[in-house]
Amino acid sequence: xxITSQIASVILGLIFTIFGLNGLYTFIPxxxxxxxxxxxxxxxxxxxxxxxxxTGGILMLIESYTxxxxxxxxxxxVNILLYHLLIDSRNMVLGFINLVLYVIVAAYYWPYFKVFLxxxx
Length: 121
Hints:
Shape: globular
Number of strands: 0
Helix content: over 70%
Low-confidence stretches: none
Largest sheet: none
Radius of gyration: 15 Å
Order of helices and strands: HHHHHH
Mean pLDDT: 90
Structural class: mainly alpha
Strand content: under 5%
């Protein structure tokens, strides 16, 4: 399980680092934005999301801050999946790949997250 988690964390870190950088500096051709993404891009919200993706991806690649990376990337993974399921289904497979990789890494670190599920002392 440890090797699987390490492979998944490297792939997930590379995905978020590369696509986060691509959101800021387009070096991989991207399809035309959906109107919802145009609104997010024009308000600057997409820039913030791209910076969070880069931060989470780099932290995932460093592997000493994996828990922090999982906390940063968790909401982003859910939003990517929901966006592709409900709004624009062109790249739905990428959303599921992100989710599977995230679950593999989070399952390995699950004992560290049990602290958050305990009632207040």
